[in-house]
Amino acid sequence: MAKDEMPKSDFRDAILWHLTYTLGKDPDHAQVFDWRLALSHAVRDRIVDRWMASTRATYRADAKRVYYLSMEFLIGRLLQDNIVNLQLADQAQAAIESFGLDYRDLLLDEPDAALGNGGLGRLAACFMESLATLGCPAYGYGIRYEHGLFRQSFAEGRQMEAPEDWLAQPYVWQFERPEARFTLGFGGRVVTRDGKPVWEPENFVQSEAYDVPVIGWQGAWANTLRLWAGRAVDPFDLGRFNAGDFTAAAEAEALARTISRVLYPEDSTEAGKRLRLTQEYFFSAASIRDILRRFEADHADLRLLPQKVAIQLNDTHPAIAGPELLRILHDERGLPFDEALAITRACVNYTNHTLLPEALESWGEGLFGELLPRHLQIIDRIDAEDAKAHPDRRNAARGEGRVRMGELSFILSNRVNGVSALHTGLMKTTVFADQHRIWPDRIVNQTNGVTPRRWLHGCNPRLSRLITQTIGDGWVGDLEQLQALEPHAADAGWLEQFAAVKAANKADLSDWARREHGLTLNPQALFDVQIKRIHEYKRQHLNILEAIALWQEMRENPSADWTARVKIFGGKAAPGYFFAKDIIRLINDVAGVINADAATNEKLQVVYLPNYNVTLAERLIPAADLSEQISTAGKEASGTGNMKFALNGAPTIGTLDGANVEIRELVGPENFFLFGLTAEEAEARRAVPDHAARAVAGDPRLKRAIEAIRSGIFSPGEPDRYANIVENLTGADYFLVASDFADYWRAQREVDFAYADRDGWARMAALNVARSGWFSSDRTIRGYMQDIWNAKSLLGQE
Ligand code: CJB
């Protein structure tokens, strides 16, 4: 094959061509890595045509574009996702196998792009895929972190963190756009010129764009995820270099690159650092400039902006985009302030993802004013205009010496949304009660969703095949069609096939766990899985307490008919969150003791898999029997893992929190293991003095489990290792672990009982699948398009 004969139609030839001419490798010497890159290039070629057609169609229609601004996009691997969406799986597999290679090995060779911490970042990635699937013209804007979320390992049970390095290899999915640069200012001062305020920044950096195309289901449409990297305005100081000061010569570049160097690993807590605010302004300001550049290329009248632009703030991290847009409209384009404010507000919308007070961002006005002096003035002016219109308003954006990003985002938004029905209701009565009183139409709900292409079709090929054999393949693009499975859940023959799928997935997971971690899992046991960030409100410590109590009871009563269980944990803790790190160590210590107990270890195992990430989730969820969603009611805004488990046939044990409430309504209360206080009861319980001590005193099982931790049997020689946890559980216990323990225990024994009836369990699991179609992120995005963005699909117009 010659270079000028780039093959388009034959996929196998296209791979060979890229191996030879793009990668410069002789097929005889190519490694898995080379073949994976060659395959990726061949796939990418097929995306590009559709990508350009979509962009052209958007320009032609002069359509409204949606801009999704997010500090995090937890993408994971893209090769399989792209192959699945282009429906190239069979061709790709056949081609790769014809070279004598293992197709799955190739897919698994790709590193995870972990540009996010957890739910919020993964939601953004699911949304990008659904936006493309629905043909909604949209751009994602974020940061191209050189290092994504840290790699986790354990040393004597303790979490160790190592830098993640996804860009150490060529990233085929990105297109560098060196021409799309903006120079952004920081610091300096505001002077008055001709009676007008003028910001004179002191420091400058450049933002450089990298574009990742995002292809929708069946390749019908493609959008762009544009990630910004920091670059110096003058990359190199030749004068200093020639004078011999080599370090100083490269200083500007090093500083600029620091901005996009690493993802902050805090999840649901406020980072509050200067670099974080710098990152936030950096990517928000670059995005706003890009949005305006695109708009102004075709429109002269800025008042048309809200008809052509919808901006979504994914939490408050990009909140500064609002004041930045206002500043440009007013200071640089000369619109009157009130008009600039009205236009900004008509374009911007804000999604709240948490009500935890420690996660609500605010900045000291000193730091804020130093970095963004003009924005501070603008925020004051917005507050002043607002106070004029609503004299009884209480929550200004600036107050008590701080700039409060939630308040700011609310004031500057057309719509504000929560991510589950319960969470949206709580927004109205708690954190945003005052704003809701003034603007009763502004808060709307959009319950989260997950993309079925990745979270069922891609990650669970066996179940996907069974579903398609049963009801056809329309469900992949229209998940509510899963309802058609419902009659089959009453058919014993079909249920047997369904149960065989789960058993095979569990066997796969067990094989992998043996190969990778030397673990022997009992595939007959119930696989009970809790995977998510480690946080007190998510209550992994409730789960491990139950494991301890169960183990104690098994030892006491070894001949009873126990349902065998493997409790599987996965998740990272923020490096500075010491309580969460203690929980990790406790789980590992407990696992060590329980797994070594020959009297019980056929019936109970505890496993903590390190370095939980998107890929591990794709492995675990299809193999799970039970989904642990046990947060303190009122604290988990939505959850999205809960949806993935239900969709893959793992019933939930859970509280009435976040989207659990909606999952339970849809799958039916008889197919969901409910326990625990409601959000309202939880609030009331906190007011009871000694609520934890009372709960412990009233529950001998709980008491004995806590005593075991206190005694040091899990930390030989160091009985105080978990003094903090013990003290918390018996003292303040803000997250009500002790209060919910007895009911959690009860629900777990209901699970045991239900699982012992394998046919009944398979039916329950199948009904979870059949009734989870509503949790597609396609449904969520349709909701945003209709209720928030007023954006239209261009499918069929490309
Ligand atoms: N969430 O992942 C994060 N990070 C935050 O800083 C705040 C919230 C999560 O967002 C998810 C997507 O909406 C929710 O499902 C989840 O409940 C929430 O904790």
TrEMBL record:
Q: Does the keyword NADP apply?
A: no
Required cofactor names:
pyridoxal 5'-phosphate
Which Pfam families does the UniProt record give? Answer: Phosphorylase
Q: Name the enzyme group at the top EC level.
A: transferase
Keywords assigned by UniProt, alphabetized: Allosteric enzyme, Carbohydrate metabolism, Cytoplasm, Glycosyltransferase, Pyridoxal phosphate, Transferase
Q: Where in the cell is it found?
A: Cytoplasm
Offer one example of a GO biological process linked to this entry. glycogen catabolic process
Q: What is its EC number?
A: 2.4.1.1
- GO terms for MF: glycogen phosphorylase activity; pyridoxal phosphate binding
Extract the coiled-coil ranges from the record.
Answer: none
Which residues in this protein are found as N6-(pyridoxal phosphate)lysine?
K644
Q: Which CDD domains match?
A: GT35_Glycogen_Phosphorylase
Reactions performed catalytically: [(1->4)-alpha-D-glucosyl](n) + phosphate = [(1->4)-alpha-D-glucosyl](n-1) + alpha-D-glucose 1-phosphate
User: Which GO CC terms are listed, alphabetically?
Assistant: cytoplasm
Its domain of life reads Bacteria
The function of this protein is: Phosphorylase is an important allosteric enzyme in carbohydrate metabolism. Enzymes from different sources differ in their regulatory mechanisms and in their natural substrates. However, all known phosphorylases share catalytic and structural properties.
What's this protein's family per the entry?
Answer: Belongs to the glycogen phosphorylase family.
This protein is called what? Alpha-1,4 glucan phosphorylase
Species for this entry: Paracoccus denitrificans (strain Pd 1222)
